[in-house]
Every structure is written in structure tokens, then in C-alpha cells.
Amino acid sequence: MLEFATTNPGKIHEAREYLGAETVEQFDFDYTEVQGDDLDAVAAHGVREAHRATGEPVIVDDSGLFIDAFDGFPGPYSSYVEDRLGIERVWRLTKPEDDHSGAFETVIAYCDGDSFEATPEPVDRDERRGQDLAASERGGATTDEQVQGTELPVKLFWGRVPGQIVAPRGEGGFGFDPIFEHNGTTFAEMDTEAKNAISHRGRALAKFSEWVETTGRLE
Known about the structure:
Layout: E1 2-5, H1 9-19, E2 24-27, H2 39-54, E3 58-67, E4 74-75, H3 78-84, H4 87-93, E5 101-111, H5 125-129, H6 144-147, E6 155-165, E7 180-182, E8 185-186, H7 192-198, H8 200-215
Parallel strand pairs: 1-2, 1-3
Antiparallel strand pairs: 3-4, 3-5, 5-6, 6-7, 7-8
Helix pairs in contact: 1-8
């Protein structure tokens, strides 16, 4: 069984689509979301804290909206910015003459308390963001800091969906979904099935699912 540390039942539904309903259990755990400029570090900290709390194989995800005109902001600070400013204000901050391109990104972090072979790899945010959808096709990797020393090993998997920042449309989804348009439709205008099929989280989950199947990690 795999625990997914989240208070959002929608994330559980999406994870079960990729990993199976019998595989994923919600771990209703509000782990500490450290503030940092990188999704990877936030997710790695959260999954270690969650594993220490549950003692079981566990994943967490950290996601953000990266707006090109704002040099990637709000990125890892997306939840805070949404709470403080709201999506309407974020949209209004994007001037008509600005580049309206952006992307949703997700990092899935996995920890089970055991050691596993990982490929230490530096994390280059700018390079990943410039690779369009290629981030979802990368293998998971951990950094040297995550592999070595006394820290629990963590495996990371990335997903990314490019799009445009637009005036709010749609009643579905959550967070910044109403102002994020992909292929002419905002995430808030998509039904759950359509959104999950192309979402940044879904891309990361697909890569994680492939790794689990290949390694037999959860057997």
C-alpha cells in the first residue's frame, strides 16, 4: 500500500487512476511546507516528514504556477500567493503587453525508509522549464544531498504542462486553474477526466507509476 500525504481528495482520485484504487491510500497529514525557491526541496522535505509520521511508503506532491513574465513567480509560492492575492489579482498583474506564457509544474516525491539505487543529479530549473513537455519524460532522480548522509533517500518525478495566463474562465478545478489555458481551454473549463489526462500531476504520476512497475518497489 502507498500512502499519499495530502488533504486534497481530488489528488487521491488522480493518483488512483495511474496506480490503482487498491494501491493508494490517503494519509490525511498536513506536513510542513518549507519556503524555498525550488519545488524539489519543498517536496523532499515534506515526504521525509510524512514518512517519519506514517512509517509506510509515501508520496507527496508540490506544484506551482510559473509565469514567464514574472520570471517564474509565483512558482513554489503559489499557494501563499493564491491565499494572499487571489487569482483575479494575479491575472490583473499580467499586463496586456507582457508575455502571457507560463506552465504548471509538479514534483512527486517518494520515500519508503529503505535505501534504493538512485542517480544523483543536479537540478537545473531553467533547463527543465525550457524543455517544454520533456520534463514528464525524464527519469526520476535524487540529488546528492538526498542520497548521502543521514537523510532518508527520496526519489523525485517531474511533470510540466505549458500554457497561457488568461482572464478567469470556468467553474471547475481549484487554485489557479481558471486563469491557466492549455490548447484553448482553461483547466477550470475541463472536466476531471480531461484535466487528469494532460495535467502536470498526471505526467509526474505516470513517470512514478512506470518506475514502480519497473522496480517492483511496492510489491
